[in-house]
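Protein chain data
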Amino acid sequence: MSTVTGMPAAGPSQAISDADRLDAQEILERARKAAPVLRERAEEIEQNRQLPRDVVEILRDTGVFRMAAPGSWGGPEMTSVQQTEVIEAIATGDASAAWCAMIGSDSGIFSGYLDDTVARALFPRLDTITAGFVNPTGRAVRVPGGFRVSGKWHFGSGITHSDLLLAGCVVHRDGAPESAPDGDGVHWRIVIARREDFSVHDSWYTTGLAGSGSCDYSTEDLFVPEEHTFSLLEPQRTGTLHAAPDAILRTMPGVPLGVARAALDHVRELAATRTDKSTGTPWSAHYRFTTAIADAEMDLAAARYAVYTSLAEQWARLERGQQPTPDERVATALARYKAFEVARSIVNRLYTLVGGSAIYRKRSPMDRWLRDVSTMSQHVDAGVQNLKAAGELLLGGQIPQKTLLW
């Protein structure tokens, strides 16, 4: 039997000084400076199958993990656009590092679903890192004061360096699933506990994103106080970041966009010194290469525009206290979907363009980028089911409010 250990009493706002405060622009600049360092460490990160400890600290020093921390705690409380820009910058250095940064930066969002006093204890510093799978694959049995939690969860990206773990559960009472408070399906609740209260399984052997350490994890009969659990439909903190349940998905397209940018920059640098072997024509003057680069840049620009425009429009509406229209809900979801699709296409086309030298792991980053975008494109948010749901919503259908993808 497991029990939750005691939580620290000090809150972030008690420890932050003016000198430690970071604004959105400073965090973005730090992310851009960290990207070349991450590029140099990319091979090591991949071989390690998780982020090395000092790489975690490089990310922490950028301020990425505090991006969503509230201003009342001394955090920057960045907009979704600002956060996505930071993730995109990190992804130009290493995809696994960016994926972990994207996941870990949700800490400030998750803290807003808890009572503020509880949240300040659970998150003792602004850079507290969370990880975990929020979909309800576990079981939370009601007991006095909280829940007894059991289950196994997948895709714990960043779990090897996280401070806290989240786990989605179906609430059970008297041996049966409990109905949701609104009567729509079962009661889905997310629990938060220390990483040490879970068993981490060495399961992450993958084609790409190998350095993200996205291992399985489990627990059995873990007691979690009710105040350490929440529903994504019941934010306790007011503000734009918590006005819609898709907040934890908004920064996701930054990863594929950043990888595609890195691949394009790499091939453009190659073009300055390469010639086509069959004709002797420099790449920079060869029709096949010039049109391929222009075509890829055009596709990436369109994908970026869709992501950032839809995020900005959604944020403006939420800031006015209004919920997005069906078309606006679709716009942000499809822009995320398209970012994965376009990035995968661009990297694949550039990989083919570069030719035989792209296949060598030690010689070319193209091989890793191809594997990284292939793996991240298997994420549920890049799945074709999103097109189906989008079409239904555009044609007058309904998407349940609790559906995370929307």
The longest strand covers residues 130-143. Residues 233 and 245 are 7 Å apart (CA to CA).
